[in-house]
User: Fold these one by one.
Assistant:
Number 1:
Amino acid sequence: MTRPKVHIIYAHPSKKSITHELKEGYINGLNEKNIPYTITDLYESNFNPDITEEEYLRENNNIASPLSEDIVIEQEKINNADILTFIFPLFWMDAPAKLVGYFARVFTKGFKYDHEDGSPATMKTMDATNFLISAGSSYEELKKDGKLDALETIFIKDRMAGKTKKTNIYIFDETTHHKELMLNNREKYRLKSEKIGKNTD
């Protein structure tokens, strides 16, 4: 049986966070099932999220210019995978700035989107895309005020639109420090993310 290849895009500045536990748990699950993976740790690699003027002009068809080496490497990692897994916290109801910039710089015209001349985009369609998202608010609060619907719109209907056969969003809620201590979420969520990793194939 051929195992799917997973590429993880991870974004959190602290190794003391529950989000870090999610990443470690998920990787443990992959390892237990011998599922091959690569990982881009946006903070550890000091990924630059800022789009340059040249990149902006290229994306708007003002100039033709080659992709920078860091972007080519990331696009190759994606195309070598069958499954993408994004692991990150909600900062102001969006991904951290480094991950927002990752989408802006890596999901380029010609890769995620067709060229204006009609030549097709080169990004492969993933078998699945997973989002493991930590949030300070409760799941009920996120659902009640429409934030869960907004997350699905942003990440499923926009950023991964047309490039994945299925998507899974896993919300790990109530991760603020006092809730973490009171509810023992850290260990519970690590085990849950490990189970998700085991079931990736």
Note: The first strand starts at residue 6 and ends at 10.
Number 2:
Amino acid sequence: MLQTDMRRETGSVFNSLSLAAVLLISAVLRFVNLDRTSLWYDEAVSWSQSNGSFSELLTAVSADNYPPLHNIILWLTMPFLGDSEIALRVPSAILGTIAVWLTYLVGRSIGSQRLGLLAAALLCFSPFHIWYSTEARMYALLATCGLGFLLSVLNVLKQPSRKWLVLLTIFGALFLYSHIYALLAFAPVGLTCAAYALRDVIKNRSLTGSPAVAACIAMGASAIAFFPWLLILAGRARSVAADGFWIAFPDLNFLKNMAFAISGSLELIILLLGFAAIFLVKLIYETAIRSGNATRSSQNLAILLAYTFGPLVLAYVYSVLVQPILFDRYLIAAWPGFLLLASAGACSLQIRLLPPALIAASLILSYSELSFTLTDKIRPEWREIVQDYREQKMPNDKLVLYKGFAAPALEYYLREPSAFKATEKSMQPAELSLDTESGERWLLVVHSNAAETEAATRAVSNKDKPPAAQRFGWGASGLRLLKGRTDQ
């Protein structure tokens, strides 16, 4: 008896130390060099939308395609932390680290501490998750709120205490207010809970006493809290449908690239799929031969499958039937769910060295992408192009930006709104001209295709003259700084 107690105590200490190590490594990987890369356009938009009064924030976000929770966090933190690149990215780094801890808690809830540690370790070293935990956007928030929502659902279905019902209501609302893709996980989980609730009501002939009914009520409260913003998003959806969207059609090559972007290695995602399939098959088999004994495990599996694959399946179907909306970073909340399924499969095999072996294999298979993410991966270099401009311009020179939608990034680094002019959305590159009398002597061409870039260059600069500066950015133009002709 004493030896058993000592083994349990030793195991508990080991698990606690292991979790502490995983969380420490997670924090280091997410906090180190937060300002290594420039802010890119989307991050600058977050800064711009959050850099005013609260009513201005809501007005600005309501004209965009996502809910306002991340902007509200920036609005609350900027007065204390400032608006440097690091300050804007710190909330995401904190949330990314919390997501690793929540992954452990979900794993412990559905299986064991061993399962939770394995899934947390896999997320800790995930290049995909690290990258979006260092970006001043809502993706780390989406993953963290999603895990809080998932943990709350599982605990309510296990034992619907007042604490977990309140947490489910709160996390459900936070999840929905983090990103529009939360709806694609919230709805399948809600439908799964509704199916279990209907089963319980039919079986017991009563609405009371069913954990699934309680979960549905709490999720209903979350949905009601989100309903006002859902109406706003519905209006924006009509606008997006009319104007089109920038995401490509999800053909096979697109899906392969997306799988690599999320996992860091196609071999790794195949390996993880194998372990997830093992868990699914074993649970189905156990449920079949032990009628009723695996009810809780099968219920947990159903919730986890709905949470993990619901967004992927729904987004793919919508992309094929209506218009493309499927993109890798939007699935960041589903990625921990997938890691939990794979970890459950590895732990179910009862091979002691398999979890550390899986961690080692994931590190080996994704090491190249992890190293690239931490040291070489970049975002469009707005910081550098603005520095180039400042080094070459004369005191009274002004800049014209084509295309104007990128104005927040230029404004963030110039910090002089009057020092540049953004072109109208409808302006064609051949129509560009510089008003030299008012000081317009420079043109910055961004995110343009080859034809647009050539036309813009011909319109304002000598044909054979190289750009004054060229930095990384998307499109054939990148971030191309042109000095205007002196005869304009």
Note: DSSP finds 19 helices and five strands in the chain.
